[in-house]
Amino acid sequence: MTPSVPPQQPELIEEIARLRDRRNAVILAHNYELAEVQDIADFTGDSLELSRKAATVEAEVIVFCGVHFMAETAAILAPGRVVLLPVAEAGCPMADMITPDELRAFQAENPGAITVTYVNSTAGIKALSDVCCTSANARAVVESLPADRRILFVPDRHLGEWVTRDLERDVVFWPGFCPVHQRILPEDLRRKRDQFPAAVVLVHPECDLPVCEAADFVESTGGMLRRIAELPAGTTVILGTEVGMINRLQRARPDLVLIPAGPDLVCANMKMTRLVHVRDALLHDRHRVTVEPGVAARARVAIERMLAVP
Ligand code: 13P
Ligand code: SF4
Question: Structural domains in the chain?
Fold first, then answer.
């Protein structure tokens, strides 16, 4: 989508503020979004925090600055609200790594198993699932399930392997992954640790299991913000996640030294949304995200089960 020629940034920010008031809108942004978008958002957070927010907002319009599955989750949790994804093409490749037909076949091969689905998935997959999880609560969700039942964990193999690594559970993993976090290798961490021996290594659980095992802390993006709040001033942190997190964390703790774990850790989808797209979303109702009511009703059950896990 080509946006119209943007006015100067301050004018654009004022225009967005005026449109937000006029439309009774709220702007939500994921932690990986560009700083210019985070700066004008009403709320910035990880997938779990954004889902909780979407479930409780009173605004009539939700502008979701993130990727498609996040806006879809908001549409499921906030029926009756207009949910807008400013860039229609902003998707998550992991969410497309399993189709409803593939999940049905997987379930048929494993009768009686409980399907645990990472929120990085389509509404159609959530609708076929027993319970959802995010990277922040996946462990708690798995622990809340009956111990004698097999679990099918979809679509992120790495998150599933990490959160069940030391549990005596029968789990079968779908071979999905995040192409960005997959790039981080254990050798990258070893090299960085050699270079910065006093550094703390903080990674996202979408990284491969050997990378998570080699880290000091494994956290969702929201968990990373809480984790760095505890670190002494001047600490060097090697960060195994999308590079947008560096800016997000650095603004919270300008006294830390933050270093990416590897090269090219960019999620292009999370970088598509610019201020002009947010303005156009509010101005032209771009791009409305809806979920077929029957699918939404079934998906909501799985998401609400997740939200009920303490
Ligand atoms: P968080 O839930 O940790 O914000 O992660 C979402 C995501 O897509 C990470 O790649
Ligand atoms: Fe999807 Fe990975 Fe981008 Fe997250 S970082 S939205 S999992 S591709």
Answer: 9-90+270-293 (3.40.50.10800), 95-178+297-308 (3.40.50.10800), 184-260 (3.40.50.10800)
The ligand that comes nearest to the alpha carbon of residue 68 is: 2
Instruction: Take atom 1 of ligand 2 and give the residue whose Cα is closest.
Output: 92
For 196-223, the pLDDT digits (tens) are 999 999 999 999 999 999 999 999 999 9
In whole angstroms, what is the distance from residue 183 CA to residue 266 CA? 10
Q: For a substitution probing ligand 2, which of 96, 248, 267 has the most ligand atoms within 8 Å of its CB?
A: 267
Q: What number does the ligand 1 atom closest to the CA of 48 have? A: 2
Residue range 63-73, pLDDT digits in tens:
999 999 999 99
∠204-205-208 over CA atoms, to 5°?
A: 105
Ligand 2 mean position, distance from CA 181 (Å): 8
Number of helices followed by number of strands (H, E) in the chain: 14, 12
Atom of ligand 2 nearest to the CA of 93: 8
Q: What is the pLDDT of residue 143?
A: 98
